[in-house]
Each structure stands twice: as structure tokens, then as C-alpha cells.
Amino acid sequence: MTAIEPSNRPGLEQPAFRHELYPYRGDAQFLSGTLGYIREALEGGEAVVVAVPPAKASLLRGELADEHDVTFVDTTTPGPNPGRLIGAWVAWMQERGAGDRPVRGIGETAWREARNAAHLSELRYHEWLLNRAFARSAAWSMLCPYDDADEDRDALRSLSRCHPLIRQDGRHMPSEDYLTAEEYPFEALNAPCDPFQELSYAHGDLAAVRSKVAQCASDAGVSEDQRRKLAVAVTEIATNSIRHGGGSGTLRTWIQDSTFLCEFRDAGYIPDVMAGRTRPTVDQMGGRGLWLVHQLCDLVEIRSTRDQGTTVRLHVNVDGQQD
Length: 323
Known about the structure:
Elements: E1 18-24, H1 26-43, E2 47-51, H2 54-64, E3 70-72, H3 85-96, E4 103-107, H4 117-133, E5 141-147, H5 153-160, E6 165-168, E7 171-174, E8 197-202, H6 206-220, H7 224-244, E9 248-256, E10 259-266, H8 288-296, E11 299-305, E12 309-317
Parallel strand pairs: 1-5, 1-6, 2-3, 2-4, 4-5
Antiparallel strand pairs: 6-7, 8-9, 9-10, 10-12, 11-12
């Protein structure tokens, strides 16, 4: 395994939420690292939540017998959209944490099952956002095993940018590549594929937006059930554009790699990078629209800056790989 040296970056402080990347090769290294992490937790009176692929879960179950403080969760429950994963982790860890009891998570993402480059980019962004989601939860920590069998240094470095800590030989050390909130670079969205359909919209044009999307989605082979979900999602996004994005926006639709895409551009700005990724509370004012959109679409990409405005892309799979 490629060695990762401790960071020498000045001013890099260990975060309250301990988010560790664990590169491994083979089942033996997977077990030694994760079991060591679990045993540390149990010895400290902590609960453990494990969200790993079924084959890896079977390996761990065989070693842990009936350990009641370790809970295995179904990683398919949140569906394919990485934007749903933080909400799932919040629920899983809250269910296991009683009072102030610390909880440790083990989450292995199925990187090699990423549908396309956009999906892979959003998976990495999710890993980085975990640091924001649990920043004030000092009692919580998470280990992210990563199968480094391909010895892909670039892929490993990309993930190191998302994790403040690296675990090796049973110890964790600062990641020299970790990017703080001010440093994290959004990956630029690719240009829409030709041919694409375009429609400008403003107040009073929601029906036209829904009609345009419905026709384009039907032409692209999107199922009737998916079109109903998409109609709700596009209504939410277009409404946000009109209310908060300067009163107007531009819709583009196209098909790419067996995926139907709707892109909304407006002049607004979304300052909260966590918008739509955590379940709204009962008494919360606003913030439900993006949460709902994440539940309805197979992938959601959001890029928002003060000077360039906001772009939201909704992805719907059209080749039978929907959730």
C-alpha cells in the first residue's frame, strides 16, 4: 500500500468529528482495520453503525457473532443519489446513540459502481460534506474503508482531499491533502450535449416548464412513474428560480449516457452547501424543496456562486437502473 505521510501543513487542526480514510488491499486488510476500529469503540462503550457492501458485511458478521452494540444497515435504502446519504447517516447514528453515547460509523462507498463521472464527483463531494454535517458532533466519528487494489494514486489523493484523517496500522494521522471549506474545488459541469432543448421562464411560466420537461422526458424514454416524480422536482426548482433567483431562469434538457437531464440556471445564490441534504424538521421554515428534489431524482448537481448564480441539474436514469 502506498504510504501517506503525516501532514506538515501549518495550522491544520484535528477536527472534532473524526473522519478517517482507510485505504486497504484485500479482505485481510479490510478486516484487520475495521475490526480494530470496532474493538476500540466497544472498549470505550461506543455503539457502531456499519454500512458496507454485502460481501464485506458478511466478513464482519462472521467475526463479530452476536455483538449487540454493532448494527449493520442496508446500504441500498437511500438509493443511488449521493445527496440522500447524509440524511441516512444522521438517522442511522441518531438511532444508535442514546443520550450522549458516542457512535462510530463505518461507511464504504461502492466507488467502482459509480454510474458516470458526474455520479463519481457527487460521491466525492458527499464524503467532503460529511465533515460539515457532523462538525459539531464531537462524540461521533466515521471510518471510510477504500479498496486500493488498483493502486490508483490519483483516486486515492482525490479521496484524501475529502478526509481530514488517514488511518494506517491502527493509528490515524492528519491528511496532507485535505481541503478545508475555503479550498474545496467544485468540479466544473460539462457542457450540455447537443442537441439540447432550451426554454426561458419567468413568473407565470410554470405550466410551460412542466409541459416542456414532460414532452422531452417522454421522447427520451423516461417512464411514466419517473415523469410524475420529475414534474414535482422541476416545479420545485423552477419555483425557487422565480422566487429567489431574480424572477426568471433558463431550462435546458438533453439525453446523455442513458440519462435524461434537466438543467436550471438563474441569478440566485444558495449559500448553504448542506441545502437539501438533511431532513427538514417539523417546525422548519422553508428548505423542503431541495430535500424533496433529492428524494425524487437519481442524481442532483448544484453549483452556486455569488458572481455566477446557480445551476441545478436533475438526472433521471432511463435504462432500467432507477432506484
